[in-house]
Amino acid sequence: MKTIGNILLVPFKLILLPCYILATIGILLLFILEAISTVVLGKLIFICIIIVLASALFYGSSLTNNAAVTGIIIAFALTIVITLIPFLIKGLQSWIKSGLSFWF
Description:
single chain; 0% strand
């Protein structure tokens, strides 16, 4: 029964193997992207905070009318999204790995 199951699952496993390899490569690239983007977005947030403080001190503008506040919010949202993507791909990779190890 086990060999019949393995024969029936061979096409499914041949599809999952390249997907697993691509997911592994994607995780490695995403960790590099996350490190780079965290530095870049951190600098963007820092610059936007300086702009908000400078405009509040020198011009007396409110926070709701300042475009830098929108930049800070967007940068924080991008940081969260970029941080979550590798974890989602890791979950996909573990799902593919469990599909590959079924009955082997």
